[in-house]
Amino acid sequence: MRTAYSVETVRAAERKLMAELPEGALMQRAAAGLAAACAGLLGRTSGTRIVLLVGSGDNGGDALYAGARLARRGAAVTAVLLAPDRAHPGGTEALRAAGGRTVDGPSAADPARVMAGARLVLDGIVGIGGRGGLRPDARIWAQAAREAGARVVAVDLPSGVEAGTGEVAGEAVHADATVTFGTYKPGLLVDPAAGRAGALRLVDIGLAPHLPEQPDLEALQHADVAALLPVPAAESDKYRRGVVGVVAGSARYPGAAVLAVAGAFGGGAGAVRYVGPAADAVIARFPETLVHAGPPHKAGRVQAWVVGPGLGDGPDARRALDDVLDSDVPVLVDADGLRLLDGDRVGARRAATLLTPHAGEAAALLGASREDVEARRLDSVRRLAGEFRASVLLKGSTTLVADGTGGPVRVNPTGTGWLATAGSGDVLSGLTGSLLAAGLGVVDAGSAAAYLHGLAARFAAGHGGAPVRASQVARALPAAWRSVRG
Ligand SMILES: NC(=O)C1=CN([C@@H]2O[C@H](COP(=O)(O)OP(=O)(O)OC[C@H]3O[C@@H](n4cnc5c(N)ncnc54)[C@H](OP(=O)(O)O)[C@@H]3O)[C@@H](O)[C@H]2O)[C@@H](O)CC1
Ligand SMILES: Nc1ncnc2c1ncn2[C@@H]1O[C@H](COP(=O)(O)OP(=O)(O)O)[C@@H](O)[C@H]1O
Ligand SMILES: [K+]
């Protein structure tokens, strides 16, 4: 499991750790890890040109001390001091003593010349102390670094992103890799900021014992998902494995029912019940499905419901939604179900409810704009969960799952843009419902499903990548299971 902590929590832990250590020891740990990561990336340091972009805080200090270490290994290191009178004094001195040189950033005539021939640029402009996007001076240098074609390694965070939220308020550095210290920060895992971070590397500086048990964010990895996935035992039968009910599709959108059922079969429930007008289409594709034409509560035993994909917004759809919400088993509400949703009804439920909006649906539920939700994903998912007193899975480039009780938000690391194809959300809702029926908690079910879904899309897209259809994502789910469990 990857975990991330808010900036305040990181600062508090750092204070405790620093009190145990000699002055400056922590920065040396960070710089040593950073220099080692850079050396590993370069392969060869001797004779290599490296440029450091150095801001006025300790983030710049890290870059300077790491630069000094690389200079001692034979690299030709130039530090661009963006605030020359406030650059970390010890770091500046160490770099000069190691043979590195410094350039006055704001008054340098030609950034392109300083960058010429650089293979690596270290972004030490600003770290967790940053506020807002890059300032104009820094922007010029960040752009020069990209234009020079150098690899850009961000120190702790890509400068310009909001460490605690993943928001990007203005311009930010685009890094090829980020070397972060002590713990991940939310901005490294949540888009749009995460998209600027490149490959992540965590350097252990001894912070872990001082961090609280509960992180702000969690990202599952293969082993975590493997531990969650329901596997039949010797005594299993279809009811013990769970029965998932799917209320989806309409005369206009029968395909949504087929895709949700496909996802449900990919999730490990013992049986899938389908309730709605698209039974013929469902049976034609999946003869194993138990179909029912009456109201959901008459369909027979169900351990979790999925309601909404392709349901339409007529009176039948509304009745089916309310019927399912009246049940005392977990309910996942997606797509049209979200448009018809009565918040009070959700708040009154005793069993778990999981809402699975994409950014547009989340925006409608919050009375915000889609752009706003996409810019503030973490805040949006928490607000939705709070307002609806339900768990929420916010879909998109970094899918987030919040439980509404202030627990850690799960962030999915397997997403891929190939998933942005019609119907892939229907597959996800069936898959998640299946895991709910098998007995997983809502946050576990939502995050494990998002993980498998992303992995399946990657497998379907194949090596190198090619467009995939939602049904191909569903078909690749067994491969995703095997990859996780293997
Ligand atoms: N604490 C520890 O134990 C350890 C900390 N470590 C390291 O320290 C980093 C935190 O250092 P920090 O607290 O000095 O803040 P930092 O991120 O350098 O930025 C603050 C400066 O930036 C400026 N500034 C603000 N916004 C800006 C913007 N948009 N664009 C440009 N400039 C901007 C602001 O100046 P001002 O607003 O006054 O002009 C202020 O002076 C952390 O990320 C990690 O790398 C590691 O060594 C491990 C141990
Ligand atoms: N840029 C992206 N990167 C990763 N995943 C994405 C991206 N865009 C969409 N997705 C995923 O694709 C699925 C789309 O679901 P949804 O928007 O409900 O589509 P539909 O209603 O057509 O099924 C979601 O799982 C979402 O997380
Ligand atoms: K940085």
Automatic annotation (TrEMBL):
Cofactor comment: Binds 1 potassium ion per subunit.
Stored InterPro entries: CARKD, Nnr, Ribokinase-like, YjeF_N_dom, YjeF_N_dom_sf
Assigned keywords, A-Z: ATP-binding, Isomerase, Lyase, Metal-binding, Multifunctional enzyme, NAD, NADP, Nucleotide-binding, Potassium
Domain YjeF N-terminal: 10-213
The keyword ATP-binding appears for this protein: yes
Cofactor: Mg(2+); K(+)
Residues annotated as transmembrane: none
Domain YjeF C-terminal, residue spans: 221-484
Positions bound to AMP: 395-399, 425
Pfam families linked: Carb_kinase, YjeF_N
Catalysis performed (reactions): (6R)-NADHX = (6S)-NADHX; (6S)-NADHX + ADP = AMP + phosphate + NADH + H(+); (6R)-NADPHX = (6S)-NADPHX; (6S)-NADPHX + ADP = AMP + phosphate + NADPH + H(+)
Binding site for K(+): 59, 123, 159
Quaternary assembly: Homotetramer.
Function in brief: Catalyzes the dehydration of the S-form of NAD(P)HX at the expense of ADP, which is converted to AMP. Together with NAD(P)HX epimerase, which catalyzes the epimerization of the S- and R-forms, the enzyme allows the repair of both epimers of NAD(P)HX, a damaged form of NAD(P)H that is a result of enzymatic or heat-dependent hydration. Catalyzes the epimerization of the S- and R-forms of NAD(P)HX, a damaged form of NAD(P)H that is a result of enzymatic or heat-dependent hydration. This is a prerequisite for the S-specific NAD(P)H-hydrate dehydratase to allow the repair of both epimers of NAD(P)HX.
Family of this protein: Belongs to the NnrD/CARKD family. In the C-terminal section; belongs to the NnrD/CARKD family.
Protein name: Bifunctional NAD(P)H-hydrate repair enzyme
Species name: Streptomyces meridianus
